[in-house]
Amino acid sequence: MSPEDLARIHAAAFTDQRPWSAAEFADLTDSAHVFLAACPQAFALGRCIAGETELLTLATLPEARGQGLGRKMLRCYHDAALQRGGESSFLEVAETNHIAIRLYESEGYTQTAKRPNYYRLTTGQRVGALIFSRPLNRQ
Ligand SMILES: CC(C)(COP(=O)(O)OP(=O)(O)OC[C@H]1O[C@@H](n2cnc3c(N)ncnc32)[C@H](O)[C@@H]1OP(=O)(O)O)[C@@H](O)C(=O)NCCC(=O)NCCS
Asked: Whose CA is nearest to atom 26 of ligand 1?
């Protein structure tokens, strides 16, 4: 999947946050630490450094949601992280993003921290980020 495709899906998925540009995705995917799980309507982007893996972003096109693609991309991300020697995974999610939080909790993530006023939405509103993590040696 090209950086342009990633930017297109990301912009369609994250309507209340600044979209990441194709150049930003190209910079990320150029890194040897960064890996991608993708299908035409969804993707998960991860980064694994010294056993610690971060889910950088997860997105499904609005018209393709509720069909299991988000969970499938998340599981592909876990598999790829394990193959790279990942021992744990963490991610940041807006505290108002109840759909994503439900998905992460159902995949074994637990909240480990909170960053108040972390995200600035396109409306100017500030929203806290929750940090979730899980070990990678179990599904
Ligand atoms: C979060 C996101 C990736 C989920 O993608 P998806 O392809 O719809 O996910 P799935 O179909 O695999 O659903 C996974 C789970 O999400 C939850 N979910 C999905 N749609 C939901 C809805 N409309 N209402 C409530 N929960 C929902 C459910 O827990 C679901 O599991 P279930 O089907 O077993 O009940 C998608 O909503 C998205 O792109 N959102 C915008 C970007 C975003 O918030 N990314 C994560 C930021 S950290």
From this structure: 99
